[in-house]
Amino acid sequence: MAGKCLLWFVLMFAVGLTCSSVQAQIPKRTYETKSCGGDAPRVDGILDDGCWNSVEWATDFVQWQPTEGAAPTNQTAFKILYDQDALYIAYRAYDSEPGKIADHLTRRDRFPGDWVEVNIDSYHDLRSGFSFTSSVSGTRGDEFISEDGDNWDGNWDPIWQLATHIDSEGWTAELRIPFSQLRFSHTDEQVWGLQVQRRLFRKEERSLWQPKSKDDPGWVSRFGELRGIHGVRPRRQVELLPYALARGERFEAVPGDPFNDGSDRDAEVGLDGKYGVTGDLTLDFTVNPDFGQVEADPSVINLTAFETFFPEKRPFFVEGKNITSFQIAPSIAGGNFTQDNLFYSRRIGRHPQAGADADADLNEYADLPQNTTILAALKMTGKTEGGLSVGALESVTAKEEATIATPTGDHDQTVEPLTNFFVGRLQKDIHKGNTRVGAMLTMTHRNLDDPNVDFLHQAAYTGGMDLYHSWRNKVWYVALNGVASRVQGSEGALERTQTGSARYFQRPDNDYESVDTTRTSLAGHAGSFRLGRVSGAGVRFESGVAWRSPGFEINDIGFMQRADEVNQFSWVGWASRNPFGIWRRIGVNGNQWLNWDFGGSPLSQQLNTNFNMDFKNNWFAGAGLTHLFERLSNTALRGGPSSLWPGEWYSEFWVNTDGRRRVSGGFGAGRGWGDDDFYEHREVWADLSILPQNALRLTFSPSYSTDRQDLQYVETNDYAGDPRYLFGSLDQETFRITARIDYTVTPNLTIQYYGAPFISAGSYSAFKRITAPRAEAYNDRFHVFSDQQIQLVGNEYTVDENVDGTVDYRFDNPEFNFRDFNSNLVIRWEFQPGSTFFVVWQQSRNEQLPQGSFELQNDIGGLFDVHPHNVFLLKINKWFTL
Questions:
Q1: Which fold has domain 33-230?
Q2: Where do the DSSP E strands lie in 168-215?
Q3: What per-residue confidence (pLDDT) applies to 759?
């Protein structure tokens, strides 16, 4: 296996060397601005202020998409002025057919219709920047750019002004960007990176002020320059955003349950804020934050041993998340191991981890909090003039208690302890960002004052370092990450860690690790090495290796599914990026993966290829094929011995129509199958978008899938002191649909609806137990129970292995029919810059039945027969600056 790893690595390196020529760098353009003194322009979109005459128009835009270097259909021009408080930008977007200008209206950050975007690298670090997009409709878009354009954070919402106007020559815009919303150095003369881009909607054409080759790596490093700003100093501004909220709930009453009488109401206040510690560093803080308007997570049925990863949606944690992110192996090739990250913000404010000891048979009822209260959180981010990026987050979550009502009285039980989380990140740019050296530290401390939460770690620490170096005009790069971890707690907590799904030390054939029941700490290490060629004409590639030792553990504040693995991966791709024939762009890539454990056992080998193309009519299509060879699993038996599994195949294709049309959409299908006919998967999906008018958009995304799994884990039972690993044949059908309605009354007043019904049913048959998990022949690995050995009694299966008339063990009927519906309606009115009023209605319905039949019409009808849980919110926040 190690030989194959080395062979692939050498092959990828050789492929890159065959096309290692470097394009000549395009000369940088420069724009010279001037101060407007006390004669600042009015931001009304009409360029009639005399101060604009003091600076020249910048023009000569060059087409970037679809045809690099061609003349644009219509030219664009801009001017820039400043005073001591703000930057002022004027656009003139010429259009020979002004009647065809697309002035689509939508909510902020959707970038509709025709627009012009300015990117400003005020740090002038050639890696990060601030983006402001001006749609002709008046809709604003803004993003924080990092990693030289590889990361665009749309959750950054600065305070700035925009006005637009359509005339006989095209359209114009004026914008005012306060310096308080940017970050820059204390030097007397500022030199900033600058790029201006225009989108001509009807032709799906992009043109740039600073020309850039599609084969050039990076984005920010290829900006032109803005010069002429003198005597401007960074502002240590304080921004406060207090909120007040009223909540009412209606739900089904439970007879006898004092905590579920059918209604609830409360009111809350909280505070968000920003403080400019220096001109380079900003402190964000929140006290009792509210995330009531955030959409619910999509529904899933997880039948694996591993936790489901959900992306972060809460604004406080999403904004600037790139700074506190530390992926162990951020491979282009992808794979489950690429999700492993030292910081997973969903750990903060999570659902309480402990249950409550309430026995319904004894007329006991429990009132459990849905989420852990975030008492306060601080986040400091920024970048110094010397190129040092700083990110630090400190958060304290409350001790949460469940109230248990019994016939003899009430008492409280801790379900989540008082916890402190800390995340610190540093990264230093060297040689104009060609080299970056960084470090990260995370700490979790819990106050375990109740035995009910003693199964958690008392403390957890991780520390990591990373190095990234690029050369030959940033075409080649090498990256190295190294991480160490340590967790501490009671003997019971550490036994739970050792026997959990991430490592399963108790496997009977595990000859290099074992469970130590006296252990009170566990340490490990992880890391990755990558070598790649990310740009230039022709072939691009990346190859590398990642590892996580058996004792590595980061899930107290990070995310990781599996330790005890070494992963080798490669990606190679080719693309033609300029139009030819019927295509605007066409590309193909291939991936390969090899995995093995720390005992040296090869676990899996996998190959994949993908093909995608963009047509000149702005349709898109693609296809992919993946083959997973016969593999060895250390986890399939949930702590039992390693087991052999047949190989698998998966193929898919997709087609998307031109998304600019009033009616657009796409569809696709996928099919997976296994060797020895042990597995089959079929899936179809579609997307439909309807734009009845410029301010209204309807989208629907349905999907339907079927799964037949010959070996689906049910449970592990005991028979005469020997474990029985029980599986069944599963037939599962799943239907889901996501619907959205977005109506924009004005750029500052929007109405949004989200609804997502989900139905999944699974029926089991042909129950079996694993007898020889590594037998050469697939059918020799298990024994199928006969009708004489297994019987369904009520909602429970009884097993009589030796058919002697005595039940040897039992297990619950695993069949399920899960019905779920989540929706929310949000009316958002930004009545003043930065100040917002929300009206929110959230509704959820869910039901789980112990049956495996799937009947779509009956299931949907049954879902909407379920009594809903309604939440109504009124929230107002007011922005202040000091």
A1: Immunoglobulin-like (2.60.40)
A2: 170-178, 189-200, 205-208
A3: 96
